[in-house]
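Changelog-linked ticket: zinc ion example.
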Amino acid sequence: MPIYDYRCPSCGITEHSYPMREAPPALDCACGLPARKLVTAARLGKGSSTAMRLLDQTQSTASEPAVVRSPPPAAPNRPVSRNPLHATLPRPGK
Ligand SMILES: [Zn+2]
């Protein structure tokens, strides 16, 4: 998603990411004052579409975490290490 600059009279310039055509002309700043969108060059990124998709997904996890309906399936019960010394290490929940 492109990044847009908004100027608040109190806080200065802040960056916000919106899908194209959905960037509002003004938004409410965290301080409560209206911040107007600035006219700037589009910053669409220079990476490949795969890299940009990864960046967008990574950024979206901060505000839009994945919703799950059940816990992940239990891991198969098999030894991770065959080193006998590892068996003496404390186990979680025991
Ligand atoms: Zn502000």
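Closing comment: Example verified and attached. The longest helix spans residues 49-63. Residues 8, 10-11, 29-31, 33 surround zinc ion (CB under 6 Å).
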